[in-house]
Amino acid sequence: MDFKQIVSHAKEYGFIYQSSEIYDTLAAVYDYGPNGVELKNNIKQYWWRSMVQRHENIVGIDAAIFMHPKTWKASGHVDAFNDPLIDNKDSKKRYRADQLIEEYADKLEAKAEKEIAKAARRFGDKFDREQFVTTNERVVRYLGDKDAVLKRLATAMKNSDLTDLKQQIEELEIACPESGSRNWTEVRQFNLMFSTQLGNIAGEEGKLYLRPETAQGIFVNFLNVQKTSRQKIPFGIAQIGKAFRNEIVARQFIFRMREFEQMEMQYFVRPGEEMEWYEYWKDLRLKWHKALGTPGEKLRFHDHDNLAHYANAAVDIQFEFPFGFRELEGIHSRTDFDLGSHQELSGRKMQYFDPELEKSYVPYVVETSIGCDRMFLAMLSQSLQEESVPDASGQESTRVVMKLHPAIAPIKCAILPLVKNKSELTEKATAIFNDLKFFTQCQYDEKDAIGRRYRRQDAIGTPFCITVDFDSLEDNSVTIRHRDTLAQDRVHVSKIEEVLRDKINMESLLRSF
Ligand code: ATP
Hints:
Elements: H1 3-12, E1 16-18, E2 30-32, H2 34-53, E3 58-60, H3 70-74, H4 77-80, E4 82-87, E5 94-96, H5 97-123, H6 129-135, H7 137-158, H8 162-171, E6 188-191, E7 195-197, E8 207-209, H9 215-220, H10 222-229, E9 235-244, E10 259-269, H11 274-291, E11 299-303, E12 313-321, E13 324-335, H12 337-346, E14 352-354, E15 359-361, E16 364-371, H13 372-383, E17 384-390, E18 396-402, E19 413-417, H14 423-436, E20 442-444, H15 450-460, E21 464-468, H16 470-475, E22 477-482, E23 488-492, H17 496-504, H18 506-511
Parallel strand pairs: 3-9, 19-20, 19-21
Antiparallel strand pairs: 1-2, 4-5, 4-6, 7-8, 9-10, 10-16, 11-12, 12-13, 13-16, 14-15, 17-18, 21-22, 22-23
Helix pairs in contact: 2-13, 5-7, 5-8, 7-8
Bound molecules: adenosine-5'-triphosphate.
Adenosine-5'-triphosphate (ATP) binds near residues 213, 327 and 330.
């Protein structure tokens, strides 16, 4: 399904609404509806349990959003958490200079891909992609230009060279997508942190920030957690919570929001052992994604061209969103930068005494950081499909189905009396529902023809529909319809939980990788 269809489906079926819609919305802020909150909670639970429950050496915390302002000085966010901003003087629209250049590079790649696809069609089975890409003059030029553009961009970003960013935009003749004009302002740095003011202190002194990442809540609590949980290195601290960034360009639905949720885990290790753990977490995080049924070709690693000031290695797990491969999760080897900076600014020793080595040191950190909302969008875009299936009368018809992993589906099963207004059927179905609701998230639905009710459940990803028919009154059995295969099994009421349990529970998912 294309991106537009995904966005409208998300609204129509109660997954995601734009914030403050009755006041014409607030840009880049979104609310989760009844099905959305269930799916989001399930994603969070899958992440939390795979970290905190599965690893005896990972513990959780829930730190406050407000932190002492010195935190953001030590972390580098006050001085360096900037994006290069450029305005178009004609449209008055604001852009990220680096993104304009990246989009230019994307277009070069798309041109190359177009040539490749054309040749693949022409040569059919004999097509050798590798050979074509390295020998076709046009493709070589497009891809070479793309690499050169990205390389120069990475250098300019690394050196915060705003003049060169502007120069590149001019040299590449990049125009404003809105007005088509090349009438640009200079490039300026724009700090992404939202600030607010404490009630009892005026001026700079009382200035607070909404946290732009959850990680710092973990670092400043490192000593507290280590002492109170008696963990030995290596160990991790996990946290799920809101983060806020004043993004300049916040299009693309919940991919880039101003208020979003992060799931972060900081793993504290011995200095010198960080690369082993970096590889360990790269591998495990990819397995976590694949266990949900995400095909390997939709995920890829992308090493950072431009390492952040705190990192000695960094990789993104990219997912193929409807608008291309983009970062879904980051895995960063952050060295002792954060603990070291907090130690320096606070004057408190952020050290760990290693009983085996018999010495104290500031631990190194490997972090895994994933946006919950981006994960949500990945799940929506991957699972939402339109397919042709036979309807009740055997005719081919199209259905929209969300093929979510059953363990994260918002509703696990729907209980449907075959027809309504037949009091014995609705009574029996209601009794089954009233029992199953203690077992899992269920929905009772008796409105409309059974075919339409199936479609409604398909559209929100319900893996099982339980139909109560007239035979049920005789044999105390029901029909269980499987969302993906459309197979229907006749099952005794006393066996429903047994049939469903293994498929829908998180335990099987956690054991599967
Ligand atoms: P990007 O380059 O896309 O801005 P980032 O590299 O700044 O992302 P990190 O600081 O590494 O992102 O944050 C970790 C994760 O948080 C990202 O992988 C992403 O999933 C999520 N994230 C970051 N910014 C946003 C945002 N504005 N909206 C939603 N999720 C976000």
